[in-house]
Write a structure and sequence with these properties.
elongated; Arc Repressor Mutant, subunit A; 2 domains
Amino acid sequence: MQKELTAESNEAKRTGRKRAANSKAADAEQSGKAKLGGFSRAIRLLDEITAHGPLRFAELEDRLQLPKATLHRALNDLIIERLIQFDDRSLNYSAGFRVLELANQIWERSDIRSLARDQLEKLCAISNETVQLSVLADLHTVYIDSIESSNTIRMSMNVGNKVPVYCSASGKALLAACTLEEQKSIIGRLQFAEFTSNTITNPTILLNELTTINATGIAVENEEHFLGIKAIAATVDDKAGNPIAAISITAPTFRITDEQVDTWKSALQSSVASISSRLAPLTRL
């Protein structure tokens, strides 16, 4: 009888320990989900501020539909990590310098930059104008490398600067290299702004120009973002024909002739072909 009671007691203890372990595992799983949820919210918040900032607390609350306390915690966490910053005067939240630091670390390790560098230098030597390497980032083209002209008056865009795809030579070149479905998806989300009288703000006209760019292999920007500035661009494609980046040559309109631009087009196409030949099929930024 005593042995039976002891056996039942031991079994009860084992069952209790098993239940406790399962309970801890469930708690840990829930904690993990909560942490992941908090991380996802923070990323959404950072995306919103980076893309549309500076923004006030009320604007963020309205855009993300988060409880005030949750939003406060997420904002404080991002501020501590220097991913965003808060302006006491304007009461606005904007992207922090650490975002640029992280971006620069990625760009420094980008294989396309190292592969393209000698061709950027070559094109700059041929044209004596600013030559830039850029990539497509949703609705913008972002400059990831640049060699500036030695001329006193020249086009200057810092690495990390972005320009809408519809009003830059590199943006239109990259957009033209997308499938028609991708083009329509991107164009459908654009909010066109008329930077100059030459800026394309009509989706149909833009699509027609993309067709022309596909046929010629060269995109032209004719004072569409800045008055007095003209640029040409072509894409660097991988072995599968996917656009990886674009190279552009940019110059003031008063200093260039159509004959010069024709010479640059030939050199530009030669350079992007040379870089493309060095790429592995899966090379990405």
